[in-house]
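Lab channel / #folding
Pinned by the channel admin:
"Please post every new chain as: sequence first, then the C-alpha cells as a reply. Keep commentary short and put observations after the output so the thread stays searchable."

First post following the new format, from NK:
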Amino acid sequence: MNWTLKIFVVALLLAAQINAAVSEPKFIGTLDISERYADLGYWGESDLFLTAPPRPYSILKERPAINQDERLIEVISLVPGDFLLHETSYEYQQLVVYGKTGNWVRVKLKDDFVWLLMENVDRFSSYLSLIEGRLAYVTQNEFLAASSAGGETSPLKITPEMQNAIRPYPGWVPSVEILETRTLSDEVGEDDWIKIRILDQEPCENHRRPRKTIFEGWMPAYLSNGDISVWYHPRGC
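Reply from TO:
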C-alpha cells in the first residue's frame, strides 16, 4: 500500500470516529414514567418495573417537526426494559433522556435513538438538578477546572492519596460536593457548569479530624467527548 493510500485510509478512519462522536447525543436528564403503570402498582421499583407488561408508545425516528405528519408516527408496544434506564434513587428506575422538545423526548430504545411522545413531561429531571444534594463524584480523576463558570480551564488531577482513600478500588474517582450549577446557554447541554468542592477525606469514611478543602471551583458539566463529568451514588454510602 503506497503512502497516499495509507493517508487516505487513516483520514477515513478518523472521519468515521469524529462522525460517530458527533452523532452520539448528550445525556440531558431522566423522565419518570412510572405513572403510566400506576394502575398496576408499579412505581419504579427495579424488579417490578422491569417486568411490567407492554404498553403502547408513539415513536419517531427523526426529530419531530412543529406540524408533525402523524403518518410518520409509529405506535408499538414496549416494556420499560426495552429502554435505557438509570437508577436515580434506591431501586427506582427512570428513562434516560437525550433530547426534549414539547412532549417529545429522545431516548435510547435497545440499540437505537428514537423520539418518544409522552402524555406530559412534568416528571422530567434535568441532569444538573439530579446531581444537586447527592453523594456525587466526578467521572474521571483528571478533569478540566476553572475559577469561574465559563472561565479558562486547566487540567486538574485528584489521586486517592489526596482524599485519603482507605480502600481505593480499580477505577477510583474522587467524591465531590455540589455547591452550585449554572447554564450559560439557552440550549440544554451546550454550556453547563458545575461548582464543586473536593475535600481531603471521602464522605463515607469516619472523619476523625476536621476535613480540609483541596479544591473548590467550577468544571464543565460534560467531558470533551460529550459524556457527563459528574454523577452520584443513587443508594448513598
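NK: The helical segments are 3-23, 46-50, 127-131.
TO: also worth noting, The two ends are 56 Å apart (CA to CA).
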